[in-house]
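Tip: read the tokens left to right.
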């Protein structure tokens, strides 16, 4: 697959998802690729080192393609002081969320009138069951432990991925860190999940719609949050 090129796009329930292939190395991004970015993105990308540079650049290429498919202007996507993606300039009326691994960057874009969105990508291999006690509540751990052993890791990673997507959808509005026990996730085999929020500071609770899907040995999760 050619690096820094979109490899798929999908219209999903929570928006348009675009995936961009990455080289999987920490080599500096070639100039002709950097020159495809918005000037403000290009200037920031040139300050980045190691894997951060290709991943950040790939996510911007994915965002630009998703904005194009949505019919929105190609604004620069920088980061706010908490790391959330920030659309530079005039509000184009879109919501956006990003995720990346070393070989793939993902953007999810939707009209902001539908709510805030979050996307996450997690590897199914290698199994890292030790994360369960860090990211699941006692009730979620009980649900995982009630499953046959061969289904437990998948049940953990789906919950973990959906929680990361919830974080990305909620954190810019709440303006704070959200702990893993502030959301409980009950996935069902059809790719849906019921989410219950327990926001620690009693903020208004948005309705959450969450989905997950398999993507070449990974879990791709998308979330939409809507406040009444
Ligand atoms: C912020 C966090 C979710 C990012 O996940 P990650 O696995 O490190 O990285 P990913 O590749 O999935 O996502 C990276 C993208 O997340 C986005 N992101 C980072 N901070 C963010 C924030 N505060 N709000 C929204 N999006 C954010 C950025 O767009 C970033 O990409 P970019 O730097 O190229 O713009 C993670 O580091 C984290 O802090 N998790 C703990 C909090 C949590 O998940 N709580 C669960 C609550 S239920």
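Filled-in amino acids:
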């Amino acid at each position: 697959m050619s690096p820094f090129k979109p490899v798929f796009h999908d219209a999903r329930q929570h928006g348009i998802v675009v995936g961009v292939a990455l080289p999987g190395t920490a080599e500096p991004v070639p100039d002709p690729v950097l020159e495809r970015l918005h000037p403000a993105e290009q200037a920031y990308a040139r300050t980045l080192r190691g894997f951060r540079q290709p991943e950040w650049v790939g996510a911007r290429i994915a965002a630009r393609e998703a904005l194009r498919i949505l019919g929105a202007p190609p604004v620069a996507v920088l980061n706010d002081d908490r790391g959330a993606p920030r659309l530079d300039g005039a509000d184009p009326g879109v919501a956006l969320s990003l995720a990346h691994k070393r070989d793939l960057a993902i953007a999810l874009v939707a009209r902001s009138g539908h709510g805030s969105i979050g996307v996450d990508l997690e590897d199914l291999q290698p199994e890292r069951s030790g994360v369960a006690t860090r990211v699941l509540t006692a009730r979620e751990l009980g649900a995982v432990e009630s499953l046959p052993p061969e289904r437990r890791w998948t049940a953990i990673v789906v919950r973990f991925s959906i929680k990361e997507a919830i974080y990305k959808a909620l954190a810019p509005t709440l303006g704070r860190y959200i702990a893993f026990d502030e959301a409980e996730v009950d996935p069902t085999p059809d790719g849906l999940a019921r989410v219950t929020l327990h926001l620690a500071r009693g903020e208004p609770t948005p309705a959450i719609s969450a989905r997950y899907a398999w993507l070449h040995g990974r879990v791709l999760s998308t979330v939409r949050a809507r406040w009444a």
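The mean pLDDT is 96. The chain has two domains: 6-114, 119-226.
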